[in-house]
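Let us walk through a complete example step by step. Step one is to write down the protein sequence. Step two is to encode the small molecule, fe (ii) ion, as a SMILES string so that its atoms and bonds are unambiguous. Step three, shown after the inputs, is the structure prediction itself.
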Amino acid sequence: MVDTHCHLLPGLDDGPRTTGQAVDLARELLQAGVRSVLCTPHYSRQWATPHPVAVAAHAKLRGALEGARVDLETSVAAEVSTAFAVTASLEDLAERRVGRYVVVEIYADTPAPFFATVIDRLAEVDLLPVFAHPELARSIERRPEVVDDARARGALIQVLAPGIVGFWGPAVAAHAWDLLEADRVDLVASDAHGPRRPARHLARAAEMMAQRIGPAAVEDLTETRPAALIRSLSRDDSYVVAPPTSSS
Ligand SMILES: [Fe+2]
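Step three: the predicted structure of the complex.
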């Protein structure tokens, strides 16, 4: 599997505190069936990590993984808070992109219009959001068509393993399954943080999804489409923040 949402970098947020703990989490991810991880440290008021600091933490972790012979591919972006998605500069957001996408988190009380607001804002620099854990949002439970509108405009919907397996409670799990069974999801990822939120949630979510929506859908959500997202990161090094050119 390719995991497009994971707090693997040590010492930056509520993920692993030390490099040793990060190496342990990397081993757990491999055991859970993950071969490639997009590190998404929080970018929020609480954890306003400058991106070069995250890039340096990633380089240090790469050295530790190679030293420990942990064969896990890694790359780095961020998980942008709802507040920063609308207040941080577009340059700050673009710096944290993966390909053309920026991972933006959704909370229980995020209002439905937030989705279009963020799509409009990122469009100014020709970027699109990946909306992380919309299964938490009560507004989306009431109005799932908001997800359809966002996807029609190119945004991606990322449902996370803790939601699917019931770690965030039965109501969130029911909503996650509604989204999955209605084919309203583009990516499934771990949101692993270490022991507190372990990598095995993703392995369990994949098993449950294989039963309920079939192995082909699991392959699509955890391998094919996440791999395409990661590939777009490495191919797109020449990206510069500029207004999108007219398509006419
Ligand atoms: Fe996260």
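Step four is interpretation. Residues 5, 7, 40, 79, 191 surround fe (ii) ion (CB under 6 Å).
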